[in-house]
Amino acid sequence: MHARRTMPATILAMTCVVGLAGVGQATPAAGKEDLVTNGAFEPEPDYWWTTGATTAETVEGRARITVPDRTSAPWDSMLGQGGLHLTNLAVYTLSFDASATVTAKVRITVQSHLPPYRTVLDRTVTFAENTAGHTLRFLAMPGIDATQVTFQFGGRAKGFQATVDNVSLRPTGSPIPGVPAKPSASSRPGAKPADTPVARPSSASPPAGATTSSPAIKVPPASPGEKFYTDPMNNAAAWVREHGSDPRAAKIRTAIASQAGGRWFGAWSGDIGTAVRTYVDAAAATRSTPILVPYNIPDRDCGGASAGGAAGSDAYRRWISDFAGAVGDRSAIVVIEPDAVANVDCMSTQGRDARFALLRYATEQFKAKAPNAKVYLDGGNAGWIEPTAMASRLARAGVANVRGFAVNVSNHKTTADSAGYAEKVRAALPNGGARTANYLIDTSRNGNGRANGVWCNPAGSKLGKPSRAGTGGAEYELWIKVPGDSDGPCGIAPGVAAGTFDPNLATRLIDGS
């Protein structure tokens, strides 16, 4: 295949960064208020609740949890506490000591107490016979009313006993500057939810009544002084927070994690209206332009490394409509469905018709609901589809409804080669498209151009110019892909799945090696 293949890392966009377990006693952060009540479980496990047939009692100064037999899912056997008060975009540390009578994988979450039980921390930790201290760090995301911590022991045919002690949840970092810090609403301390929590990423439909905007006004052109939003949860930043002592961390923080670029949205984003609205609100609070990439088209990637997407056409129409509605009248840059226009050769005629109909629908939704957003279809790259053919496909996909098209998304072609290709595509657009369509170039990994004809994690690639207004014919030169995210298990990262951040890939991009 000629295009990049990528999807966000298995860490969900809403999920925090965590640390590794250590042996011995967990050490709470000093001098900070503990949000957990009775984390020592003395004299009894007051304020803590359990679910199903699970029981908890204090034995020798620790909570002993008895997990029943035949639990089919982690949340079928839980210990938990509600009443948390988190501050948006602040860093927290959850620490605890734990052991078990058998080696068991236990799911730890900090989550909302109501459906769809969205998480800001979702981590699987191994409990062993010897007591070990565990320290998990995470970022509290706005839009997720996380009010409870859970230990989820279920999903096993045979029951066992576990011990938990010294549970502490404390703030360990300041909110991100410029973003309003609004404490989450919460229930009373230790309150048990009305229904059994299910700490799963939500794929539920967004709330009805998505907001539509007033008639569009003319969107101003790119400005050399335009500021772009840096995603505080990008995969590079997440890795740096988790591995701050790694000798590569400082280089990755400066060269990649702190740079503005695209946030990709898909099924992993949970409720798409909430996810998008939260993100553009955070960008607006810093007076910067967010770059958003919807990536959920059905039959995505023709079954390749980034296969997936919405379950069908109707599901996608709801999803993309709510995406556009959540952007609303705020300024934003949107690149619609990378590869979706170019990567149709695997499809039947009927499949192609359905694909282009969905893309056209997407452009119509953004035109109607996000009048101040600059929206671009994806136009492939200079080494893939012939310019005249690409122009025809873009026209069919509804490019006339949006700002224009993007090229080189997640690819490695130089800015000059990409601009040359885009100019040819633009010249071939029908019905005056050559006069009106703009284009942008993804420069995230094109500093050295393409390496030896390899698109997937090639050696010798290098970071391109950071996000900025275009310097030639392009309206923008932006980092759409997060550098360091793998294209798939291939090239110089044969064991790294698509969308997973790899520090070796990142450092080689920084060095151009």
Strand content: 15-25%
Q: Provide mean pLDDT, rounded.
A: 83
Number of strands: 19
Q: How would you classify the helix and strand content by structural class?
A: alpha/beta
Rg on CA atoms, Å? 24 Å
Strand order of the largest sheet: 12-13-14-15-16-17-19-18
Any descriptors?
elongated, 8-stranded mixed beta sheet, hydrolase activity, hydrolyzing O-glycosyl compounds, alpha/beta, disulfide bond, Jelly Rolls, 513 residues, CenC_carb-bd, Beta_cellobiohydrolase_sf, 21% strand
SSE order and pairing:
Blueprint: E1 22-23, E2 49-50, E3 55-59, E4 62-67, E5 78-81, E6 91-100, E7 104-112, E8 119-127, E9 132-139, E10 146-152, E11 160-173, H1 235-242, H2 249-257, E12 262-265, H3 272-285, E13 291-294, H4 313-327, E14 332-336, H5 349-369, E15 373-378, H6 387-397, E16 404-407, H7 415-428, H8 433-436, E17 438-442, E18 468-469, E19 476-478, H9 503-511
Parallel strand pairs: 12-13, 13-14, 14-15, 15-16, 16-17, 17-19
Antiparallel strand pairs: 1-9, 2-5, 3-4, 4-11, 5-10, 6-9, 6-11, 7-8, 7-10, 18-19
Helix pairs in contact: 1-2, 2-9, 3-4, 4-5, 6-7
